[in-house]
Amino acid sequence: MLTQYFSDKSFNILLLGTLLLLLAVPSNKSYAQTVAQEMKTTMADCRRIENKEVRLNCYDKTAEVFSNENASPTIEDNSQETKEFGLSTPTPKPSNGLFSKVRNNIRNRMNTNKKQDSETPKNVIIKIIKTTEFGYKKTKFYLENGQIWKQVDSRSIRINKKSLNNAHISKAALGSYLLRINGKGTAIRVIRVK
Q: Among the four residues 141, 166, 184, 193, which has the most C-beta atoms within 10 Å?
């Protein structure tokens, strides 16, 4: 059966024709379009073969031809200018393994975050001294202890100017903070300025 496959002149002519068409890329089409068209044509020719083993071999040969044809050569340029292209600062050399510094930094951060989480409260209530508007419907909050918090999102918030107001600031996801006036109403996302 395999000897019939390799001695089949029509398949060899088909394979040779495909290779020649790949080499003679027309100038009005891109290379990728030409390769895709040739792949479709060759696959259609393979589909017409009735014998299952011969058809499978045709598909395998076609895939091999196209994978070899589409492989791009690797160009290596080891000059210093090429290595530093696009870098604003030199990259540090890894020591004690490729990811040892990264792993140690992550462990240290996790340990310090655990300490900070246990030391800092989940939420605080501080008296608001004054508020100012900036940008588009954003507010700065000046608190009694000297802290200044700035609104990050553009949600509207109602502040009663006639009564005393407290800022209920609580931790939110990913290290952000939410502020609510007197613990009521909508929570706005804030960041500490001072």
A: 141
Q: In degrees rounded to 5, what are phi and psi of residue 42?
A: -65, -40
Tell me the two tokens of residue 48. 């017409």
Give the pLDDT of residue 178.
92
What is the sign, positive or negative, of the torsion defined by CA atoms of 142, 147, 148, 151? negative
Which distant-in-sequence residues (6+ apart) come within 8 Å of 65 by Cβ?
15, 18, 19, 22, 42
Closest by Cα among 167, 192, 169 to 181: 167
- Torsion, Cα of 53, 59, 60, 66 (10° steps): 170
Interatomic CA distance for residues 110 and 103, integer angstroms: 11
d(Cα 70, Cα 33) in Å, to the nearest integer? 12
DSSP state, residue 169: E
Query: Which residue from 165, 166, 137, 163 is spatially nearest to 150, judged by alpha carbons?
Result: 137
Q: How far out from the chain centre does Cα 88 lie? A: 22
Helix ranges restricted to H, 48-135: 52-70, 80-83, 100-119
Q: For all residues of the chain together, what is the average pLDDT?
A: 73
Instruction: Answer for the pair 58, 46: CB distance below 8 angstroms, yes or no.
Output: yes
pLDDT tens-digit map of 30-56: 666 676 777 778 888 888 888 989 888
Nearest alpha carbon to residue 187 among 163, 164, 165, 171: 171
The C-alpha R_g of the chain, in whole angstroms, comes to: 34
